[in-house]
Specification:
With 239 residues, this protein is α/β, with parallel strands linked by helices. The protein contains 11 helices and 9 strands.
Length: 239
């Protein structure tokens, strides 16, 4: 099992993002989720949305973000990259150009968010890329159906929210992963949302998850790089 660290491309600069990615790898992170900052990140909380906004204030040229991701791929050959992009960003880049960029650089795993419909998603899948799907902890039937029909990894909510109504039968993370497997989903299941402490990685591992997304717990240590590296090592040790 692995942890997945989130990388805000271009925040506060592309150069500093390169340094952060190198530190992620040095700490033992083998999977990095790297984003294209969106001009309209309406699904994000204020923290990530603000980082995207500031990144675009410093550099609003998506060609430079593509160059940045290519450099990560080249300089960190042992690290797997997951590419997060809003549909509005893919449209701005150009769907065909985005697809060619991903194919040419062997960036197969895409987190495509903010979809208006399935048109662009289906085109990306038809090109041979793998599009992930998000499934909430309470296992809504429509999300299970989408997961069964998609071809990328499943991004499964790792912990329920305080007031979230649970599935009447599947109430633990192990239960939810088991149910997805019963439904014939044999692709990787990466668990995120609620992974804040190293012990949460242990929970994901014991439940049968393939990886755990670690977001804000690491992002908020970027100003203290040594502390960040040590925290990543703590999470990694639980794998």
């Amino acid at each position: 099992m692995e942890i997945i660290c989130y990388l805000s491309s271009g925040y506060p600069t592309i150069e500093s993002s390169i340094e952060v990615a190198n530190d992620y790898a040095k700490a033992g992170c083998k999977i990095i989720e790297v984003d294209f900052p969106s001009r309209d990140p309406y699904l994000e909380g204020e923290y990530i949305a603000d980082r995207m906004k500031k990144a675009l204030e410093n550099c609003d040229d998506y060609n430079k973000y593509m160059d940045f991701i290519v450099s990560l791929k080249r300089n960190l050959p042992d690290v797997k990259l997951l590419v997060l992009a809003y549909e509005n960003t893919v449209e701005e880049i150009g769907v065909d150009k985005f697809i060619r960029f991903c194919l040419d650089n062997d960036l197969k795993d895409i987190l495509l968010v903010g979809l208006k419909d399935d048109t662009i998603k289906n085109k990306i899948i038809s090109a041979g890329l793998l599009v992930s799907c998000y499934v909430q902890f309470h296992l809504p039937e429509e999300e299970i159906d989408l997961a069964k029909r998609s071809n990328g990894f499943v991004y499964l909510q790792a912990k329920p929210y305080i007031d979230q109504i649970l599935h009447p039968k599947y109430k633990t993370l192990k239960d939810t992963i088991g149910y997805l497997r019963e439904m014939g989903i044999d692709r990787p299941i990466y668990c995120g949302v609620g992974v804040h402490e190293p012990k949460d990685v242990t929970t994901v591992k014991e439940a049968g998850g393939d990886a755990a997304f670690v977001g804000s717990a690491i992002l908020k240590l970027h100003d203290d790089r040594n502390a960040m590296i040590e925290k990543i090592k703590e999470f990694k040790a639980m794998c």
